[in-house]
């Protein structure tokens, strides 16, 4: 069970954050996302709006879970004609910039970590990253939050950033592309309004991915033994 949770918990945590944001954004009167997205899609500044939203989601850990990808989903579902290549590029760049910023702030705080954490704990983190780091790159293809967490870990462990940029660029493109395909092909039938179904769908997908990753971790560890 412990091995399963090692792989699954990060994705379960993201799913829980997504559900919390669903409750805040769709079950309170704090925001009217439908009005916000409708207004944004009619503006020439929509790609910039999307860049900022996804960037906030892609910087870890200051913003926790900001619904940047949910706004991509809503913008496609509510106004497909407003979403073109510029929006795709804006979201792609935002994930890359967010991951690099996450890496930079982790490197900045690394000396503090080395003062407060024991050498044994740091060695355990290093060994875990050596064992599972290649598989953690899968997170780059899943969600901006997961990508930011991965690059935060890279920075805290002092790993090289340059050789990871190719994975980041490919993962960011795949993540945004999958979001566009899912909405335009599967969930664009939500109609002119959105009551949070897309956010819940994202949470369910994260739970499913976490379960698969956890099962794979158990299977791989069993084979190693």
Automatic annotation (TrEMBL):
Keyword Membrane: yes
UniProt keyword annotation of Transmembrane helix present: yes
Alphabetically ordered keywords of this record: Membrane, Transmembrane, Transmembrane helix
Source organism superkingdom: Bacteria
TM stretches of this protein: 7-25, 45-66, 87-106, 138-158, 165-188, 200-219
Protein name, per record: DedA family protein
């Amino acid at each position: 069970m412990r091995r399963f949770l090692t792989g699954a918990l990060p994705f379960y945590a993201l799913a829980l954050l997504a559900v919390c944001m669903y409750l805040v954004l769709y079950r309170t009167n704090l925001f009217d996302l439908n009005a916000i997205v409708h207004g944004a899609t009619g503006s020439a500044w929509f790609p910039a709006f999307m860049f900022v939203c996804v960037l906030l989601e892609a910087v870890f850990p200051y913003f926790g879970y900001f619904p940047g990808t949910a706004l991509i989903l809503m913008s496609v579902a509510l106004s497909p004609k407003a979403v073109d290549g510029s929006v795709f590029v804006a979201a792609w760049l935002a994930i890359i910039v967010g991951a690099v910023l996450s890496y930079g702030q982790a490197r900045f705080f690394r000396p503090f970590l080395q003062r407060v954490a024991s050498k044994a704990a740091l060695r355990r983190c290093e060994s875990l990253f050596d064992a599972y780091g290649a598989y953690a790159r899968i997170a780059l293809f899943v969600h901006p939050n997961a990508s930011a967490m991965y690059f935060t870990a890279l920075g805290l462990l002092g790993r090289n950033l340059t050789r990871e940029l190719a994975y980041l660029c490919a993962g960011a493109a795949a993540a945004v592309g999958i979001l566009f395909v899912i909405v335009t092909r599967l969930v664009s039938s939500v109609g002119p309004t959105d009551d949070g179904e897309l956010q819940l769908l994202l949470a369910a997908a994260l739970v499913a991915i976490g379960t698969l990753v956890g099962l794979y971790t158990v299977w791989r560890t069993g084979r190693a033994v």
